[in-house]
Amino acid sequence: MTALIVYCSCPDAATADAIATALVEERLAACVSALPGMRSTYRWQGQVEQAQEVLLLIKTSAPRLDALSARIRALHPYELPEVIAVEAAGGLAPYLQWVVEQSGSDE
């Protein structure tokens, strides 16, 4: 099974904490790291915008990606939240296995 790292930017620490806690409690993610102090520049509705954000690095398994994405959309205040997944191409094998195990179903 494949481990993924999912990027999700949040408008503030409270939102980031709420999403991180929900994802881990619901076993959609094994671990979520919040990186404060990110400054984003982006185009939205024809305008160039800038915002201070908190970046979430969400560690999950590939089969949980669709459910994780849906949960982020339900919890996130942005109209179009960032949800970008990249495969963990390498790493410490026991850690990657832990990610897969901890982001498995509750069954």
TrEMBL record:
Pfam families in UniProt: CutA1
InterPro entries: Ion_tolerance_CutA, N-reg_PII-like_a/b, N-reg_PII/ATP_PRibTrfase_C
Gene3D superfamilies according to UniProt: 3.30.70.120
SUPFAM superfamilies: GlnB-like
Family: Belongs to the CutA family.
Protein name: Divalent-cation tolerance protein CutA
Organism annotation: Lysobacter korlensis
